[in-house]
Design goal:
Elements lengths: L1 E12 L4 E7 L12 E5 L10 E9 L2 E7 L3 H7 L6 E8 L12 E7 L3 H10 L5 E6 L8 H6 L3 E6 L6 E2 L3 H10 L7 E6 L2 H13 L4 E4 L15 E6 L2 E6 L6 E3 L10
Parallel strand pairs: 7-8, 7-11, 8-9, 9-10, 11-12
Antiparallel strand pairs: 1-2, 1-6, 2-5, 3-4, 3-6, 4-5, 12-15, 13-14
């Protein structure tokens, strides 16, 4: 984990309200593992005391990139920044995904909204190709589809309004795939990132089919380094449960350890 001022290489609109931000960070980029995040302070927004967490999307040489959605004052200020300007970044943070091994379990990735950003580096570094199930409310919420396909992954898309791919929730094509290939269940593993209801649904699917699953939990963070305890979730411990921090012990957890009935 390093705290540095890094330089914007590019900050361009992707679709609708989504932007791709590329940052030159030669000391940080080599340290990044799939599923980790960066805690960003937007320097022009002087009144903002808190940093903002963003999943790390790609790493290339001495740069890493972030996919973000312009949804408020902070991200609006970020969207107005240009190449050459600086941001203060703490990264890489958090416990990420387990990269599949050659000849191991076939990975099934499930991504909702800009949760797709957290999954791409995992797919890119996995020697074992698999299927990525991408979901969103509308076509403009489907990100990274071409990037996943370009590295040899089978991409299955679902939108709630039916504007792209299958109409419905992203868990529908996932269930169909698992149901159609029951003989292969013992050789598959789920990885997911997205809104909490989707993660809970994926966790239930993993439980029902006795599949291992790693989930990147979507919790609000303040400090990002384990001090403030804002982002805790309940996980199993001994005969009961305890709180763990998504910014340090997570954001990626084994789905079997999460206590959903107590979760916020």
């Amino acid at each position: 984990m390093l705290e540095q001022n890094v330089t914007i290489v590019a900050n361009e609109r992707d679709t609708d309200l989504y932007f791709r931000l590329v940052l030159r960070a030669p000391q940080i980029a080599p340290l990044i593992q799939p599923g980790q995040f960066a805690h960003v302070r937007i320097l022009p927004l002087k009144e903002a005391l808190l940093r903002r967490p963003f999943s790390i999307f790609q790493v290339a040489g001495d740069t890493f990139s972030i996919l973000y959605k312009n949804v408020g004052k902070g991200t609006d200020a970020l969207a107005r920044m240009h190449a050459g300007e600086e941001l203060s970044v703490i990264a890489p943070l958090g416990h990420g995904f387990t990269v599949p091994k050659t000849g191991g379990e076939t990975p099934l990735l499930v991504a909702g909204g800009y949760g797709m950003a957290a999954m791409f580096l995992l797919a890119q570094r996995s020697p074992q190709k698999g299927i990525v199930f991408v979901g969103g409310r509308r076509r403009v919420d489907i990100l990274c589809e071409k990037e996943f396909a370009a590295i040899g992954w089978d991409v299955r898309v679902a939108t709630e309004d039916g504007s792209h791919g299958e109409k419905g929730l992203v868990t529908q094509p996932l269930l169909a795939e698992i149901g159609n290939r029951k003989s292969e269940i013992g050789n598959r593993k789920l990885f997911a990132c997205g809104p909490t209801p989707m993660l809970k649904a994926v966790g239930k699917i993993a439980e029902d089919f006795n599949l291992p699953a790693e989930l990147s939990m979507d919790e609000h963070m303040c400090c990002g380094v384990g001090t403030c305890l804002t982002c805790v979730i309940p996980v199993k411990s001994g005969g009961g449960w305890e709180y763990q921090r998504t910014c340090t012990e997570g954001p990626v957890f084994d789905s079997r350890q999460i206590v959903w009935d107590t979760a916020k």
